[in-house]
Amino acid sequence: MLSHNLDHRLDRLLSGLLSHIHRLGISPNFLTITSVVVAIPATIFFGLGQGLWGGLMLLVSGLFDILDGALARTQGKVTRFGGFLDSVIDRYVDLGILAGISYYYGSSGQKTLLLWTLMAMSGTALIPYVRARAELIIPRCSIGIAERPERIIMLAAGGIFNLLPYAIFVLALITHVTTLQRIIFTRKQEKEDRSQKSEEA
Predict the structure, then answer these.
(1) Domains delineated in the chain
(2) Active-site choice (65, 68, 86, 90)
(3) Is 90 an active-site residue?
(4) How many C-beta neighbours within 10 Å does residue 199 have?
(5) Once rounded to an integer, what is the mean pLDDT over residues 158-163?
(6) Alpha carbon distance, N-terminus to C-terminus of the chain
(7) pTM greater than 0.70 (yes/no)
(8) Is 41 exposed, middle or buried (0-12, 13-18, 19+ CB in 10 A)?
(9) Each residue of 118-132: pLDDT tens digit?
(10) Using 50, 70 and 90 to split pLDDT, how confident is the model at 4?
(11) Could you give the angle at which helices 164-200 and 148-160 cross, rounded to 10 degrees?
(12) DSSP of the chain
Protein backbone atom coordinates (compact mmCIF):
# COMPACT_ATOMS: atom_id res chain seq x y z
CA MET A 1 0.00 0.00 0.00
CA LEU A 2 2.77 2.43 0.87
CA SER A 3 4.53 2.01 -2.46
CA HIS A 4 1.55 3.28 -4.46
CA ASN A 5 1.12 6.39 -2.31
CA LEU A 6 4.76 7.36 -1.80
CA ASP A 7 6.62 6.76 -5.07
CA HIS A 8 6.02 10.13 -6.72
CA ARG A 9 6.12 12.07 -3.43
CA LEU A 10 9.53 10.57 -2.71
CA ASP A 11 10.69 11.50 -6.21
CA ARG A 12 9.98 15.15 -5.41
CA LEU A 13 11.47 15.01 -1.91
CA LEU A 14 14.65 13.33 -3.15
CA SER A 15 15.03 15.39 -6.33
CA GLY A 16 18.20 17.18 -5.12
CA LEU A 17 19.89 13.97 -4.00
CA LEU A 18 18.84 12.20 -7.19
CA SER A 19 20.32 14.99 -9.33
CA HIS A 20 23.62 14.69 -7.45
CA ILE A 21 23.65 10.91 -7.89
CA HIS A 22 22.97 11.34 -11.60
CA ARG A 23 25.86 13.83 -11.97
CA LEU A 24 28.17 11.24 -10.41
CA GLY A 25 27.25 8.87 -13.22
CA ILE A 26 25.64 6.31 -10.91
CA SER A 27 23.04 4.15 -12.63
CA PRO A 28 19.79 2.80 -11.15
CA ASN A 29 21.08 -0.76 -11.57
CA PHE A 30 24.19 0.09 -9.52
CA LEU A 31 21.94 1.26 -6.68
CA THR A 32 19.92 -1.95 -7.01
CA ILE A 33 23.06 -4.08 -6.61
CA THR A 34 24.20 -1.90 -3.70
CA SER A 35 20.96 -2.65 -1.85
CA VAL A 36 21.75 -6.38 -1.77
CA VAL A 37 25.40 -5.76 -0.84
CA VAL A 38 24.28 -3.71 2.17
CA ALA A 39 21.75 -6.42 3.06
CA ILE A 40 24.54 -8.97 3.52
CA PRO A 41 25.80 -7.49 6.82
CA ALA A 42 22.17 -6.98 7.84
CA THR A 43 21.60 -10.71 7.40
CA ILE A 44 24.74 -11.50 9.40
CA PHE A 45 23.72 -9.17 12.23
CA PHE A 46 20.27 -10.74 12.42
CA GLY A 47 21.86 -14.19 12.37
CA LEU A 48 24.02 -13.20 15.34
CA GLY A 49 21.03 -11.86 17.25
CA GLN A 50 22.13 -8.24 16.80
CA GLY A 51 18.72 -6.88 15.89
CA LEU A 52 19.62 -3.21 16.32
CA TRP A 53 22.42 -3.29 13.76
CA GLY A 54 20.51 -5.68 11.54
CA GLY A 55 17.52 -3.35 11.50
CA LEU A 56 19.64 -0.27 10.79
CA MET A 57 21.47 -1.96 7.91
CA LEU A 58 18.15 -3.19 6.54
CA LEU A 59 16.86 0.40 6.49
CA VAL A 60 19.98 1.47 4.57
CA SER A 61 19.40 -1.35 2.09
CA GLY A 62 15.79 -0.24 1.75
CA LEU A 63 16.94 3.33 1.09
CA PHE A 64 19.05 2.18 -1.85
CA ASP A 65 16.06 0.21 -3.12
CA ILE A 66 13.95 3.38 -3.00
CA LEU A 67 16.65 5.43 -4.72
CA ASP A 68 17.10 3.03 -7.65
CA GLY A 69 13.46 3.27 -8.72
CA ALA A 70 13.28 7.01 -8.06
CA LEU A 71 16.44 7.64 -10.10
CA ALA A 72 15.13 5.54 -12.97
CA ARG A 73 11.82 7.43 -13.04
CA THR A 74 13.24 10.95 -12.73
CA GLN A 75 15.98 10.35 -15.32
CA GLY A 76 13.74 8.49 -17.76
CA LYS A 77 15.77 5.31 -17.40
CA VAL A 78 12.96 2.91 -16.54
CA THR A 79 13.59 -0.36 -18.40
CA ARG A 80 12.02 -3.78 -18.28
CA PHE A 81 15.36 -5.34 -17.37
CA GLY A 82 15.80 -2.83 -14.55
CA GLY A 83 12.41 -3.79 -13.15
CA PHE A 84 13.27 -7.46 -13.49
CA LEU A 85 16.65 -7.04 -11.77
CA ASP A 86 15.08 -5.00 -8.96
CA SER A 87 12.49 -7.70 -8.35
CA VAL A 88 15.11 -10.47 -8.21
CA ILE A 89 17.35 -8.47 -5.86
CA ASP A 90 14.38 -7.71 -3.61
CA ARG A 91 13.74 -11.44 -3.25
CA TYR A 92 17.36 -12.09 -2.29
CA VAL A 93 17.20 -9.36 0.35
CA ASP A 94 13.81 -10.39 1.76
CA LEU A 95 14.56 -14.09 2.02
CA GLY A 96 18.17 -13.53 3.09
CA ILE A 97 17.10 -11.43 6.07
CA LEU A 98 14.53 -14.01 7.12
CA ALA A 99 17.11 -16.78 6.65
CA GLY A 100 19.42 -14.93 9.04
CA ILE A 101 16.64 -14.61 11.60
CA SER A 102 15.78 -18.30 11.15
CA TYR A 103 19.40 -19.22 11.78
CA TYR A 104 19.45 -17.23 15.00
CA TYR A 105 16.25 -18.75 16.35
CA GLY A 106 17.26 -22.24 15.26
CA SER A 107 20.76 -22.05 16.74
CA SER A 108 19.44 -20.65 20.02
CA GLY A 109 16.82 -23.39 20.36
CA GLN A 110 13.81 -21.10 19.97
CA LYS A 111 11.80 -23.57 17.90
CA THR A 112 8.46 -21.78 18.07
CA LEU A 113 9.96 -18.53 16.79
CA LEU A 114 11.83 -20.51 14.13
CA LEU A 115 8.52 -21.94 12.94
CA TRP A 116 6.90 -18.49 12.79
CA THR A 117 9.90 -17.16 10.88
CA LEU A 118 9.63 -19.97 8.34
CA MET A 119 5.93 -19.16 7.96
CA ALA A 120 6.85 -15.50 7.38
CA MET A 121 9.44 -16.61 4.83
CA SER A 122 6.95 -18.71 2.88
CA GLY A 123 4.40 -15.88 2.90
CA THR A 124 7.03 -13.40 1.76
CA ALA A 125 7.99 -15.68 -1.13
CA LEU A 126 4.37 -16.29 -2.12
CA ILE A 127 3.35 -12.63 -2.40
CA PRO A 128 5.40 -11.78 -5.54
CA TYR A 129 4.86 -15.26 -6.98
CA VAL A 130 1.08 -14.93 -6.76
CA ARG A 131 1.27 -11.49 -8.35
CA ALA A 132 3.40 -12.76 -11.23
CA ARG A 133 1.01 -15.65 -11.89
CA ALA A 134 -2.05 -13.44 -11.51
CA GLU A 135 -0.78 -10.90 -14.01
CA LEU A 136 -0.66 -13.62 -16.65
CA ILE A 137 -4.47 -13.60 -16.63
CA ILE A 138 -5.41 -10.10 -15.36
CA PRO A 139 -3.74 -6.73 -16.04
CA ARG A 140 -2.53 -5.94 -12.52
CA CYS A 141 -2.52 -7.53 -9.06
CA SER A 142 -0.65 -5.33 -6.60
CA ILE A 143 -3.18 -5.19 -3.78
CA GLY A 144 -2.65 -6.34 -0.21
CA ILE A 145 -1.85 -5.18 3.29
CA ALA A 146 1.75 -6.43 3.29
CA GLU A 147 3.60 -5.11 0.27
CA ARG A 148 7.37 -4.84 0.44
CA PRO A 149 7.77 -1.41 2.11
CA GLU A 150 5.51 -2.49 4.97
CA ARG A 151 7.44 -5.72 5.42
CA ILE A 152 10.84 -4.00 5.44
CA ILE A 153 9.72 -1.35 7.94
CA MET A 154 8.21 -4.00 10.19
CA LEU A 155 11.36 -6.14 10.27
CA ALA A 156 13.68 -3.18 10.69
CA ALA A 157 11.59 -1.67 13.49
CA GLY A 158 11.33 -5.06 15.18
CA GLY A 159 15.10 -5.37 15.21
CA ILE A 160 15.84 -1.80 16.26
CA PHE A 161 13.32 -1.71 19.11
CA ASN A 162 13.98 -5.27 20.30
CA LEU A 163 10.51 -6.40 19.24
CA LEU A 164 11.54 -8.86 16.55
CA PRO A 165 9.43 -11.83 17.78
CA TYR A 166 6.30 -9.68 17.57
CA ALA A 167 7.28 -8.40 14.14
CA ILE A 168 7.83 -11.95 12.90
CA PHE A 169 4.48 -13.11 14.29
CA VAL A 170 2.61 -10.26 12.59
CA LEU A 171 4.58 -10.72 9.38
CA ALA A 172 3.75 -14.42 9.27
CA LEU A 173 0.06 -13.57 9.46
CA ILE A 174 -0.18 -10.59 7.12
CA THR A 175 1.93 -12.10 4.35
CA HIS A 176 -0.46 -15.02 4.04
CA VAL A 177 -3.45 -12.66 4.34
CA THR A 178 -2.00 -10.67 1.43
CA THR A 179 -1.56 -13.86 -0.58
CA LEU A 180 -5.20 -14.74 0.06
CA GLN A 181 -6.29 -11.20 -0.87
CA ARG A 182 -4.53 -11.52 -4.21
CA ILE A 183 -6.04 -14.92 -4.92
CA ILE A 184 -9.55 -13.62 -4.21
CA PHE A 185 -8.94 -10.43 -6.22
CA THR A 186 -7.63 -12.40 -9.20
CA ARG A 187 -10.60 -14.76 -9.15
CA LYS A 188 -13.01 -11.82 -9.02
CA GLN A 189 -11.27 -9.92 -11.83
CA GLU A 190 -11.02 -12.98 -14.05
CA LYS A 191 -14.70 -13.76 -13.50
CA GLU A 192 -15.67 -10.18 -14.35
CA ASP A 193 -13.54 -10.28 -17.51
CA ARG A 194 -15.22 -13.50 -18.63
CA SER A 195 -18.67 -12.03 -17.98
CA GLN A 196 -17.82 -8.90 -19.94
CA LYS A 197 -16.55 -10.91 -22.90
CA SER A 198 -19.71 -13.03 -22.84
CA GLU A 199 -21.88 -9.91 -22.93
CA GLU A 200 -19.86 -8.45 -25.82
CA ALA A 201 -20.24 -11.69 -27.75
Answers:
(1) 2-192 (1.20.120.1760)
(2) 90
(3) yes
(4) 7
(5) 98
(6) 36
(7) yes
(8) middle
(9) 999 999 999 999 999
(10) low
(11) 170
(12) -HHHHHHHHHHHHTHHHHHHHHHTT--HHHHHHHHHHHHHHHHHHHHTT-HHHHHHHHHHHHHHHHHHHHHHHHTT---HHHHHHHHHHHHHHHHHHHHHHHHHHHHTT-HHHHHHHHHHHHHHHHHHHHHHHHTTTSS-----S--HHHHHHHHHHHHHTT-HHHHHHHHHHHHHHHHHHHHHHHHHHHHHHHHHHHHH-
CB contact at 8 A, 39 and 93: yes
Rounded (5°) CA angle 54-82-7: 65
- More confident position, 69 or 22: 69
Binned at pLDDT 50, 70 and 90, residue 148 comes out as very high
